[in-house]
Structures are given as structure tokens and as C-alpha cells.
Design a protein that fits this description.
Two copies of one chain form a homodimer. Chain A contains seven helices and four strands, in the order E-H-E-H-E-E-H-H-H-H-H. The first copy, chain A, is an alpha+beta fold. The first copy, chain A, folds into two domains: 2-76, Glutaredoxin (3-Layer(aba) Sandwich); 87-202, Up-down Bundle (Glutathione S-transferase Yfyf (Class Pi), Chain A, domain 2). The two termini of chain A are 18 Å apart. At the A-B interface, helix 3, helix 4 and helix 5 of A face helix 3, helix 4 and helix 5 of B.
Chain lengths: 207, 207
């Protein structure tokens, strides 16, 4: 297997953390997105929409999409369980994974693409939309801080299932990009801050 | 069980189609979003981010997020399989589910929210962003039409796995909203048009 990687990217980081939690090593091949390597024919042959990460199996089969790659790894290496054991737990982890993706990951990318200097001259930035996305992101942070605060203290370190799961990884990676876009967790959001400190102190966070 | 529903909504439709394919009936309770019922305390108690669908189990447990609800139903009613049987098939269905969600569902909602008259005066619409999302959506349609066209004719009726899966449902529901936003599949995209005609002719499409 080989994992096509973008070190600074939100979605490749998800897979690297996931692999580290599983204790699985897969050779990485860096793709230089800043130099347009992901738009070159060799890469588009792997993933025609030009996005990372991409997992290439030994027989040449391609799996794109971070969560699809993680789910494949989970099937091959079931422990520690990161996607759920029972029907209800699996559904609740998926619920929080989607909330992390759609309510945090998407607005974070909208802030990044529409406000960050990296994209100036590369894509059409719509600043007004980027500002709306930033407000949305801050509202979602406030909501989640409140949700965590309603729980017993020992249940505040993980989004769901009282252990570290794919849902935590998705949110953690979104908030790292948020930080790079200068959208930091407000200081008075102590529960979300504590969660973030907890997940980012894991050894896998440096993967 | 009870399913809180929004008849015209993209995500509740996914669950209704999924249930119809499974032959499972769950009582529906319509939530009047146009009248703000999803922002009322009774509903926010179920889903604090105010979105539909929401599944309420008999013991009061709540599952939000369309795909999480479908995955729960799949665990209780495994046949017909809609999420994958083997590790690879499961990963490939997730890959196409995410492509359908992120490359079609998200831009479709961006078109809807930023350009459709329904939202005038309800949210801040950024027309420039809506136009970009429409272009993005049309580019993705062209890409997918090409992908389907590369396959053998008998493999063009489904996105993945040569049977109707959750990935088809996600794309189908996105393109229904696109149509409501006057973004139709261009006539020269015969493969995508054929796929859409095929999935929408299923009995479940009327659910």
C-alpha cells in the first residue's frame, strides 16, 4: 500500500492520525499541491478530482476520501475500535463524525479558501462568504462548548462513546486548520479548549 | 421509533428512500421549517443545530444526521445491503458516498442557500458565491458523466458496487435539489442523465 499525502492538509492528517492510533505504518508519498502536482495527469489518474489523501493498494486499486480510507484500515485492523461496535454506537459515532465534518470541517475550509492569503490569485475568493463562514464556525464552537459542558466532567474528553474515535479526529483536524486561519477557540470556551488540549496531547497528534 | 421529517428537504428524502428500499416503515412527523418549527425549543431539544432528519428511538435516544440514521437502519435490517459487504466494497461505497455528499450535495446547498428566492430575507445570501457553487456543480456533473461513460454500459446505472447503494441515494437527492434550483443535468451528459433516469424510476424515489 501507499498513501499519497499532503503534510499540511486537513484530510491527509486525519488518516495519518488514524494510522498512528492503529499502530499501522504505510509508506507516504508527498504530493506538492502548492506546485500543482495534484493537477498533473499522473495524479488525476489516481483521483480525477485532484484531492488528497489517496490510498493505493498493492494491486493498484484506489481508495480516495479520508474517512473511506480509515474505514478500510479499520476493517483490516479492528483494534482499537474507532468507528463503533454496536449498531447504536456506530450510528452515534457517524452522527458526530458528520457533525465534525459538515458543521466544522466545511466552514473551516470555507474560511481557508475565501480568506487565507495562500489562495490569493489561485482561486476566486469571496471575502463576504468567508466572513460568514467564520461567524458560523464560531457559533458552532460555542454550541459544542455548551454541549460538552452539560456532560459529567469525565465525559468531556471525547465527542462520543467515551473513547477517542474517528469523530474526534475529524474535529481535531478541522480546528488545526481553523487555528492556521486565526480562528482560535475563544478563551471562555473552557470545555472545548479542554477537549482540544486533550486530543492534541495524544502521541498520534504529531503524525 | 419516530422520524422527524421535512418533506422537501434533501437529507430527510435520503432516509425515506433508504427506508423504502429496505421495506421498513417508521412513523413520520413533519417539521414545518418554513414556519420556524425547527428553531423552537421543543425541536432544538432533539437536535440543537436545528437540522432534519432526526430519528427518535423508543427509549428517547436521538440519532441525527441522515447517513447515521441509514447506517443504524442497515444494522437492524441488513438486506438489501446498501453500505457494503467486504472491507473494499464498504470503503468504495463510502468513497462514492462522500463524493456525492461533498462534491454534489454541498455545492447544491450552496446554490440553494445563496441563489434561491426561498432564502431571501431569511439568511444573508452571497450571490457571487452561489454562482461559483453553480459552476462547481456543473464541473462535477461533467466529470461524473465522463466517469460513467468510461465504464461498460451495464455498469452505468449505479455509482459503485453494481447495485443501488447509499451513494446513489445521496447523489440522487442532491440532483433533485439542483433541479429545483434550475441547475439541470446538461442534455449532452447522456451517461449522467441515464443514471438519473434509472435511479429516479425506482419505486423508492417517490418515498
Amino acid at each position: 500500500m501507499k498513501l499519497y499525502n499532503l503534510s499540511a492538509g486537513m484530510n491527509p492528517r486525519r488518516v495519518r492520525i488514524f494510522l498512528a492510533e492503529k499502530g499501522v505504518e504505510i509508506p507516504l508519498q508527498e504530493v506538492d499541491v502548492a506546485e500543482g502536482e495534484n493537477a498533473a495527469p499522473e495524479f488525476l489518474h489516481l483521483n480525477p478530482i485532484g484531492k488528497l489523501p489517496v490510498l493505493e493498494l498493492d494491486d493498484g486499486t484506489i481508495i480516495t476520501e479520508s474517512v473511506a480510507i480509515c474505514r478500510y484500515i479499520e476493517a483490516l485492523h479492528p483494534q482499537p475500535n474507532m468507528f463503533g461496535e454496536t449498531p447504536l454506537e456506530t450510528a452515534q459515532i457517524e452522527m458526530w463524525t458528520r457533525r465534525a465534518e459538515l458543521e466544522f470541517g466545511i466552514p473551516v475550509m470555507n474560511v481557508f479558501e475565501n480568506l487565507h492569503p495562500f489562495w490569493v490569485g489561485r482561486i476566486t475568493q469571496v471575502k463576504e462568504y468567508g466572513e460568514l463562514a467564520r461567524e458560523q464556525l464560531l457559533r458552532r464552537m460555542a454550541w459544542l462548548d455548551g454541549e460538552l459542558g452539560k456532560r459529567a466532567p469525565e465525559k468531556r474528553d471525547f465527542l462520543v462513546a467515551e473513547r477517542y474515535t474517528i469523530a474526534d479526529i475529524i474535529l481535531q483536524c478541522a480546528l488545526i486548520v481553523a487555528k492556521a486561519c486565526k480562528v482560535r477557540i475563544p478563551e471562555d470556551q473552557t470545555h472545548l479548549s479542554q477537549w482540544f488540549a486533550s486530543v492534541t496531547s495524544r502521541a498520534s497528534a504529531r503524525a
